[in-house]
Amino acid sequence: MALSLPPWGWWPLALLGAALLYWRLAGLRLRNRLWAGWLAGLGCCGPGLMWARTFNWYGAVILILLEALFVAAAAMLTPAQRGRAPAFIAASTVLEACRMTWPFGGLPIGGVFLGQADGPLLQLARLGGPLLLTAGVYAGGVGLATLLAARRPGRGLAILGGLALLTLVAATLPDGGAPVRSITVATVQGGGRRGVDKADVSPATVLFNQLAAMEQVARRRPAPDLVLWPEDVIGLDIPLPGSSEATLMSQTARQLKTTLVVGITEPAGQTKFRNEIVAWGPSGRVVATFEKVHRVPFGEYVPYRSLIGHLADISGVPADAIPGHGTGLLHTPAGPLGTLVSFEVFYANRSRTSVRAGAQLLIVPTNTSSYVTAQVPTQEVAADAVQAVETGRDLVQSAPTGYSTVVTHRGVVLRRSVLAVRQDLFATVPLRRGFTPYDHLGDLPYLVLFALIWAAGWRRERRAQRRVETYS
Fold first, then answer.
1. Is the dihedral of CA 311, 315, 316, 318 positive or negative?
2. Cα(157)–Cα(159) distance, rounded to whole angstroms?
3. Extended beta strands in 232-304, E state
4. Containing H/E element for 114?
5. Burial (CB count <10 Å: 0-12, 13-18, 19+), residue 277
6. Cβ neighbours of residue 167 under 8 Å, at least 6 residues apart?
7. What is the pTM of this model?
8. Segment 271-304, tens digit of pLDDT
């Protein structure tokens, strides 16, 4: 299952891993199911979350041990005999939903749904988002394990056939509709070193790289309708209004006669800061702003700072980001844009909220330059594809050192930059206003459905146990 995730991306292995876990749980007592699930979770979360060691190796160990407990809980909640198949699928899906939302807002990075971004199951996201995509992986595992079992290969074929049919149906469902119109877009990637702390690179250097990358955009005729800069590429020690950087961005937008969207951080007191996305219109005026809602715990803020400060060195996060509010919708001359700032691209509710508010194109200003390897950037590209499919919107991402991307509403990555290289991506992207089934439904109906399926599986197990007790 770990090797199904980016950067490896061997998506069939997720089904094989799920099949192995399902087979192993058969007949085990509760305590042994817990241990088997925890070891399976370690096998998946260990490689899948290894990127965390970049910041703190013992913090990474704790994170992996805790995240693996969600798989352990799902295994423990799976019956040992009767009703095992539906309960295993449901419990694994619901516990993955819990992992993606708790604690501190959850951690979707490393989720098995990301490994399906290049596989056929991706189209399930249009119907049920990451939850149905996750359920598809575990259902495929159950079908594969049952097929390989000598006793009931027919049942395994039926499960796999049903999953294939559901995927085909999902691929034919509404996908955002016909384009309303199209706009030209440029993503600006300044390049530079990767795997460095923010404190080790001056804001002036980052801004210089971005401006140097803009030279190619400035030569473009006609100028793009939308120019997207990454998250956090203008770092201020004074408020944005009246700053020289604000004047420079205003002049740039006015000279190009374009909508310029830029990621900015500015202070909000001694111990707080704002992580904002600011859009300048062709007139040079600020037309829209958005503050990042889903902050990165221990990256952009420290939960329980006074307590954690006694247990670990938190000097790398001296100030906490103020949580933003709103849907992420930016009304701009280029069109209504649904904004997902970096970490937010892993959360389905952020894109769904902005699309239901009227977004016709998704933009992802991000910054993954602190990561040494390509693991998180490649998982972010996978999240781009899932977000595009589940909302029926094309998506454009800009990162200072990569990956910058252009993704279609069908999840096809049309453009992808090279890591650490100064590079601009140009594309013509359509704006859409139609809704997918997932835009309408969200997660709640699926959570209720899987909870009922889990209960039905356990009910079957209990009835079988009572039958055995009666005969004995």
1. positive
2. 5
3. 234-235, 259-267, 272-280, 286-291
4. none
5. buried
6. 120, 121, 123, 124, 136
7. 0.94
8. 999 999 999 999 999 999 999 999 988 888 888 8
